[in-house]
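User: Okay, second chain of the day. Same drill as before: sequence in, structure tokens out.
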Amino acid sequence: MAPRVARRARGARGRVRGTPPAGARARSAEDWWWDRLAPSGSGYHLLQSDSMLLVLPGPEPARARAHRRATRRAQRLPFPGSRAAGAKAKPRPAPAPAPPPAPQQELDPGWGDRIPLEILLQIFGLLVAADGPMPFLGRAARVCRRWHEAASQPALWHTVTLSPPLAGRLTKTGAKAEKKLLASLEWLMPNRFSQLQRLTLIHWKSQAHPVLKLASESCPRLTFLKLSDCHGVTPNTLLMLARACPQLHSLDIQHSTVESMAVVSFLEEVGPRMRKLWLTYNSQTTAILGALLGSCCPELQLLEVLRLLNLVWLPKPSGRAVTPGPGFPSLEELCLAGSTCNFVSNEALGRLLRGSPNLRLLDLRGCARITPAGLHDLPCQELEQLHLGLYGMSDRLTLAKEGSSLLTHKWCHTLRELDLSGQGFSEKDLEQALAAFSGTPGGSQPALCSLNLRGTRVTPSTVSSVISSCPGLLYLNLESCRCLPRGLKRAYRGPEEVQWCLEQLLTSPPSPS
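Assistant: Same drill. Structure tokens below.
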């Protein structure tokens, strides 16, 4: 009995619920509920499966579908080009007269044209100050006429960097690209760059002179000029710029091939208005430094001499006698750094800085011949950044072992950054030097916020003392310090890491000597 009931249930579960099959027995309560959900004649029937209930449209008679299809076919109009269409076509009534045309309304130009030009200039000025004129101004000029007018104002084009599109390619291809860009600059210089203040030229190999000539003719407000990897700059070019641009006070010719006489002529013409100068050391740099020492630029504030890895600075006397001048009374930054040993001595540094009491930054990384005694004799009294790190030094026997306290006792009240990495000062000498930050004059807190002691013989007690005395310390480099315990020889960035280092030094046991 049970198998028969199961087979009957499986058959009912899989068949369509609708009209009962022929010869069926009396209807059950389940069949009554199925008829209530999908009554006969509704056009739907139910199908029960294992996990769902399907409601399906019921099958329609074939005759009804054929009748509906024929009705739709009869309602279709005949093809306009057929004969039946021409024979049965009825004359169409005359079209009604068109209404009089309404007055044409002007198209809405959009919100861009409704912004006043003065407001657009202020918005564009903020974007240019953040990201530079290009590529924003070039793209904004293609939005609408109002934006084109705003983007064309010369006041927005105050900083421009020009580089040929095919820089670094073959010589012939690069020369063609420079000539093509030069043809565009002949229109851009007088129409867009008339108020240009900062100009940078990169990778100009053959057309640097014509570009600078255009700048001298069209950019009278130029204040800064940078030439990077440029060739063909003649003395007449720089001299012409110095005369045509009365506000030009900064020159950066690092990584460029420029004759020393061209630079000397430029410096002599610019004279007192020269403020910043960036050079790359080569065999002709001595003539430029000699001209500077001859008081041709007394108001110089920044002097940076970049020294390449395969060159050393060996100062030689110039061919002509140079009368000692007042030096650089306004000089604030001097950088003579390099990654290898050079021959900058105390005497050469004293000649450069003997008249610079306002020096704020002194970068002498790699200058192994500079001693603390030579630095102590400098006239500057408020030095803020002192970098004396030595990198890649193989011979440490010639380094000074004492004298670091001369530096810290002189500038402990103003120093914010101190780099002594790689120096050979003894443990006791470093302890005396860093103790100066715990007894600043007037009881004020020291301004030291960055200290680099990488590779020195500093001891844990000295490090703990300087961290406790300098609450504003944000950077501390203790890499390769042989006297410190393991796990602490690394760089610490931020006040949290510096304080963690202090806690570890105070709780760690003393390392064996």
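The mean pLDDT is 77.

User: Thanks, on to the next one.
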